[in-house]
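Predict the assembly for these two chains.
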Amino acid sequence: MTAGALSGTAAVVGIGATEFSKNSGRSELQLACEAVLAALADAGLKPSDVDGLVTFTAETNSEIHVARNTGMGELSFFSRIGYGGGAGCATVQQAAMAIATGAAEVVVCYRAFNERSGERYGLGQADRPMDTTADRAAYAWMTPFGLNTPAQWVAMFARRYMHEYGATSEDFGRVAVVDRKHAANNPAAWFHGRPITLEDHQNSRWIAEPLRLLDCCQETDGGQALVVVSAERARDLPHPPAVIRGAAQGLGADQHMMTSYYRPVISGIPEMGLVGRQLYAQSGLRPDDIGAAILYDHFTPLVLPQLEELGFCATGEARHFIADGNLEIGGRLPVNTHGGQLGEAYLHGMNGIAEGVRLVRGTSVNQPDDVGHVLVTAGTGVPTSGLILGADR
Amino acid sequence: MNEEYEKRLQAFVGRELNPLTPGQDPVNQPMIRHWAEAMGDTNPVYVDEEAARATGRAGVVAPASMVQAWTMRGYAATVRPAPARRGFDELVELLDEGGYTSVVATDSELEFLRELVPGDHISQQEVVESISPEKRTGLGPGRFVTTLKTYRDQDGEVVATQRWRTLRFRPAEQAPAPQEEPAKEAKEPEEPKALRPRPAINRDNAFWFEAARQHRLVIQRCAACGALRHPPGPCCPECASLEWDTVEASGHGHVHSFVVNHHPRHPAFAYPLVVAVVELAEGTRLITNLVGTDPDDVEIGMPVVLDWLDADPDLSLPVFRPAALEEN
C-alpha cells in the first residue's frame, strides 16, 4: 500500500459509552458489553453484523467474552495493541486496515474497565508481582528508587521541558483550565458544572513536582466502543460518517515505557512526531487544515510538546500558543471539546476518539464552527498512535 | 499524660493478662516435624528416636524455642476468638485510650527448664511485669510493656519462662512536639518502615545489581565496538554484538532532570523524595535518588557524586549527593 492508500477507505459510524463514574458497581465485562451494544445501536447495526474486534493488550475483557455475551457469532479478525493508552487510535487503524484488506467488514474497537474502583493505574508499579520478562525487569531501574507512578514518570519530562523552554506550572495549568471549562458544559463529563481557575490549579497540592493535583487526570470506571465500516457502507448508516483520513502508529528511537530518559533530548515526544508526519502524508492535509484536536491529556505537561510535534506551533512555543487562547472554542485549534481526560473521563483515550467523531458529525456539546478535520492522539510517553477524522465530502 | 491515666495503667502491673490456658494439642511428633522443616532445622534429635537416644536422651524431644507454638491458637484465633474477655483486652483498650494504638515487639527472653517430649501438655499464663513511663522513640512516643509468660506441663511444673516486651506507641506523624526531635544534618531519609520495592532481576540485569551490592556502579560496554549503554540489554544497539563486559563508573555526573515525589506515598521512602535522572561523566544516564540536599536546592545541571545506599541486606543502590559538599 502507498502512503495514502488507507486514507478514506473506512469510517467510524457508531460510538457508544457507559456513564463515566468512580464506582460502576458492575463487572468490567458488563461495561464492555454495554458500550459495544450502545455503539452498534448508534451505528444502526446488530451484534451479528460484527466480524472483527480490536482492543488493548491492557484490556481484561477478551474478545471471546465480548463476542459471546453480545451474540456476535463468528469473527474473522481480532487484534490487540500494546502500551497502555498509546493503543487508542491504533485500534481504529487496525480496524481500517482490516476493512481495507477485506479481513473484516464491521469492526468494533472497545475499552472498558473499573479503573477507579478496581485496579488504579495511578498507584504505580511498586510491589507488583515479580517475573523475569524484559517488561518487568525494566521497572527495576525505577521502582527501587521510588519512581513508581505515571505522574512521577511524566514529571521528569516536564521538569526538563520547563528548563529548556521556560515553561512554568501556570503554563501547564492553562491546559487543565481549558479542559475543565469544556467539561463544565458536558453533561457526560465527571466534572460537569465544575470549572476551575488558574488560581485553583496553582493552589492544588503537589503530587510529583512539578506536577500538581490538577495537572493529573482523574481515574474512571466506564466503557467506550467505536464501530468502523468501509466508507462506502458508512453512507447507508444513520449518522454522517467520520471518515478516517489518516491513522498511524509511532514508536520512537530508544523508546521506553513512560521513561524514555536516555535519548539525547527528552523535552519532545518524537514518537508523536512520527505519528503526525504519517497522518499528514496519508491525508494530504497540513496542520492548517486541522480545525480541532483531541490531545491525550493524562497529564497536562505532555499536551505542550504534542502541539509542537504535530506542527501546530514551533518547538518550545506551545506555552505562548496556549496562553494566546488558541485551545478555546473559537480559537485557532479548539482542543478537548469534551473536557479531555482531565474533565470528562479517563477511558484510555477512547472517549476522545468518540468526541472526534462527534466533532465531525457536528454534535459536540462544545461544537466549534467549521471544524473540517479533527486530529486525535493517543497516550504520550509510550509508543503511541493518532487519527485524522473528516466528513465524507 | 495525666496522673489518673498513669494510675490506671500502673494498676495492671502484677495482673494476669491471660489465665493459665492449656494448648490445643499435646506435644506431638507431626507438629515437631513440620516446625523443624519450616525452620530448616535438620537436627535429628527432633525426628529420629535412635539419633535422640545416641545423645543420651530417652527419645525425640521438641525444639526448645518451639515452646510458644504449643500454646498458640494460631489460625483458630481468627475464626473462633477467645470467648471470655481477658485482662489483655482491657490493657489494650486502656493503651488505645492513651493514643498508643500501634505495637511493635522489641524483645523476647526465653529461659528453658527442661526439654519437652511428645505427650507433654503445655499451658501458659501471662502476667504484667512493668509498664514504662512514656518514652520518645524513633517510631513515636510510646510505652514499653513487659510481661512474663510462664509455661507449665501437665503436672503444673514450670518448663519455660518468657519475658516478652512490646512497644505500644503513637505513630510518629501524630506525635506532638516535633521540635524535640534531634536536629539532623541536611535532610537524610529517615529509617525506612518497609523494604524498598524489589527490582525484578533477570539474566540481563542481574550483573548490575550484584555489582551494586559490592558498591560498584558499573556500565555495560559492548565488547565489540566499545559503546556504553544503560539500561543494559543483551544486544548492542550500535553494532548488534551479543558480547559485552562492564566498566566501573567514575561516580561523577550531573542532574539531567529530577522530580520531587509527594503522593502517593510508599512506606519504604521518606517524603518529599527526590528522584533524578543523572547523566554520568561517561555519558550514560540512570535513574537514582539525590541525598544530602534539600529538595528546594536541587537544580538541573548540578554536579553530583556517587554515594551508596544499603537499603537492606539484599539491596544496595547507587545514590548521588551534591558534588560541592564533597569538593569544598
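Chain B touches chain A through 42 residues (CB under 8 Å). Residues 29-39 of chain B form the longest helix (11 residues).
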